[in-house]
Structure formats: structure tokens, C-alpha cells
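can u do me a favor
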């Protein structure tokens, strides 16, 4: 499926989620695409506020989505609620309480309405985006995310905007593995 078709479906979803006042935002590889860091992505990972996951799931069902069979749990993630749906041939992962497990320690992503960096227009609908700074940290916590973390780090050094330092500070005020903490501190220090 081409990117334009994926974006058209995202626009339809964004309009309905926004109409229902659901707190949500795009993250992961689709975020990198929407921010101009990559030229492709596979699916949409949508972060959903805890109180809104039932309504968000209902919105997808009303749009004609079908719920995909539950995947086997991954040892790398400890997400509280994970719903995977297919709409118009596009895969959406609805993530509530997203968390990454690394060496038996769970690192939660504190998604809320305060973790929306900005919005972009997707086929006429406002699409909220999570902060790139958050994904700089999250990708480092993932077993195969180092390349994407490095890509984000280079981008933020050249194009840091708005609350990048604040997002990174939030992470530094919490528990992080030593190597990740060092990388976050180095990026923080290098920002213009």
C-alpha cells in the first residue's frame, strides 16, 4: 500500500478521534515520517490516554476496522493495553500505557495530553504528534532501535525546537539505564 493511501486513512481516523475529544498522538516510525526524518513507514502506532482507549477502539470499529488476533506477548514490551486493528488495509497499533522492558526493568512512557508536541495536517485533519525527544529515549531502550535513536539525535541537534530540552529533562528526572542516561545528557548539552 502506498503512503498516500495510509495518510488518507490516518486523516479519516484523526478526524473521528478529534471529534470525540480523545487524547492521542502518533509515535514510532510514522512519527519519523511525519516529521520528515524518513521516507517510509509500515504502520501507525497511536499512543492513547488510559481513559480513552475504550472509546478509541470503538471509533475504529465504527469506521469499519477489524480487530486483529492478539499477538503473543513480547518480552521487550510491557504495554498495559495493546489493540491492533486493520482499517482500509492499514495496520494501527493502539498503545495505552506503553512501556519497554530492558534487562528486567520496565520503563513506562508517560503519555498524556502534555506529551503532544504539536499537530500536523493530514488530509484535512489535525494529527497530534508525540515529541521526537521522547522517541530518542524510547528507541534507545528498544533492542533494535539504536539506528533510529541516532537519526533522531542528529535531527534534534540540527533542528531542536520548542520543548526539546524540557522533554529530555523529564526523562533525566526518572530512572534510565546508564548508557541511555549518558546519551540523553550528551544530546541535551549539544542542543542550540
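np, heres the sequence
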Amino acid at each position: 500500500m502506498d503512503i498516500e493511501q495510509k495518510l488518507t486513512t490516518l486523516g479519516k481516523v484523526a478526524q473521528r478521534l478529534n471529534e470525540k475529544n480523545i487524547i492521542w498522538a502518533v509515535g514510532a516510525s510514522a512519527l519519523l515520517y511525519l516529521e520528515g526524518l524518513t521516507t517510509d513507514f509500515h504502520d501507525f502506532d497511536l499512543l492513547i490516554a488510559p481513559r480513552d482507549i475504550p472509546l478509541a477502539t470503538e471509533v475504529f470499529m465504527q469506521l469499519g476496522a477489524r480487530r486483529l488476533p492478539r499477538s503473543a506477548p513480547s518480552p521487550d514490551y510491557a504495554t498495559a493495553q495493546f489493540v491492533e486493528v486493520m482499517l482500509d488495509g492499514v495496520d494501527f497499533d493502539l498503545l495505552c500505557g506503553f512501556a519497554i522492558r530492558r534487562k528486567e526493568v520496565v520503563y513506562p512512557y508517560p503519555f498524556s495530553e502534555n506529551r503532544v508536541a504539536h499537530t500536523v495536517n493530514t488530509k484535512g485533519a489535525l494529527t497530534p504528534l508525540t515529541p521526537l525527544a521522547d522517541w530518542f529515549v524510547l528507541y534507545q531502550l528498544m533492542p533494535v532501535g539504536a539506528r533510529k535513536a541516532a537519526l533522531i539525535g542528529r535531527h534534534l541537534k540540527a533542528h531542536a525546537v520548542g520543548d526539546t530540552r524540557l522533554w529530555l529533562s523529564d526523562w533525566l528526572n526518572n530512572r534510565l539505564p546508564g548508557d541511555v542516561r549518558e546519551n540523553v545528557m550528551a544530546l541535551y548539552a549539544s542542543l542550540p
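Strands lie at 24-27, 44-48, 66-67, 81-87, 90-96, 99-102, 105-108, 118-122, 125-129. hope that helps!!
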